[in-house]
Amino acid sequence: MARHILNDRATVVFDLDGTLADTAADLIETMNVLMVREGVATVPVERARDVVGAGARAMIQRGFALGGRDLATDKLDRLFVDFLDHYAEHLAVKTRLFPGVLESLDRLEAAGHRLAVCTNKVELHSIALLRALGVADRFAAICGRDSFAYSKPDPRHLTLTVERAGGDPRRAIMVGDSRTDIDTARAAGLPAVAVTFGYTDTPVSELGPDVIIDHYDALFDAVAALDHGVTSAVA
């Protein structure tokens, strides 16, 4: 999928929702379709930080909880399937890359970094969305929650993504917006860069990432600083 053969630079692995792309509007509008159908008060996009960021199942559960409705497991399972069906047709209506993403990918690629995506979005939707946004071919691997038997915060989701990208799982950097991303990197023994503009309901400054950035203009320097001697404890 990637366009170049890379050198021994660290693999840079990105979360998707709230990190590479501002997906909240399309995610929440899809969830609200289900909530209207179920007679539950809808969630405004401004509440994205309260519901988005841990995958569709958790988002549905959180959204319905805000509307005063607890979901039994079988009901959540049915709503999850309906969510995936609707979202597949509406995943790039309002979604856009965050400012500076393209330029940052260009700089990282030119410097010899492998690029990958590790997200709790399903793989099919992740690939389709990144294609719609015109950047799928930038990534050597695009791995979702169903790509392996493990998903974030299990560190194997991250390390297996790096392996699929052709990188060394001991030499990688995670870029994300939430506790899930930072915890995943920590569990893998890898450094984490956190963006401040994502969907976490806890400020990333309280989550202990190695570097915090407010704009993608700062990512290249952050990666360069972390890449020097990056090695995890993964065997």
Main attributes of the structure:
HAD_sf, six-stranded parallel sheet, 235 residues, PGPase_prok, alpha/beta, Rossmann fold
Describe this structure in words.
It catalyses: 2-phosphoglycolate + H2O = glycolate + phosphate. Its EC number is 3.1.3.18. It is an enzyme of class 3 (hydrolase). The active site is at 15 (nucleophile). Specifically catalyzes the dephosphorylation of 2-phosphoglycolate. Is involved in the dissimilation of the intracellular 2-phosphoglycolate formed during the DNA repair of 3'-phosphoglycolate ends, a major class of DNA lesions induced by oxidative stress. This protein has 235 residues and is of the alpha/beta class. It folds into 2 domains: 11-23 and 95-227, HAD superfamily/HAD-like (Rossmann fold), CATH 3.40.50.1000; 24-88, DNA polymerase, domain 1 (Orthogonal Bundle), CATH 1.10.150. The protein has 9 helices and 8 strands. The protein has helices spanning 24-37, 48-51, 56-66, 73-88, 101-110, 123-132, 155-164, 179-188, 219-227, and strands at 11-14, 21-22, 96-97, 115-118, 141-143, 172-176, 192-195, 211-213. The chain has a 6-stranded parallel beta sheet, with helices on both faces. Strands 2-3 form a two-stranded antiparallel sheet. Helix 8 links the parallel strand 6 and strand 7 (192-195). Helix 3 packs across helix 4 (73-88) and helix 7 crosses helix 8 (179-188). The chain is globular. The protein starts with 10 loop residues before the first strand and ends in an 8-residue tail after the last helix.
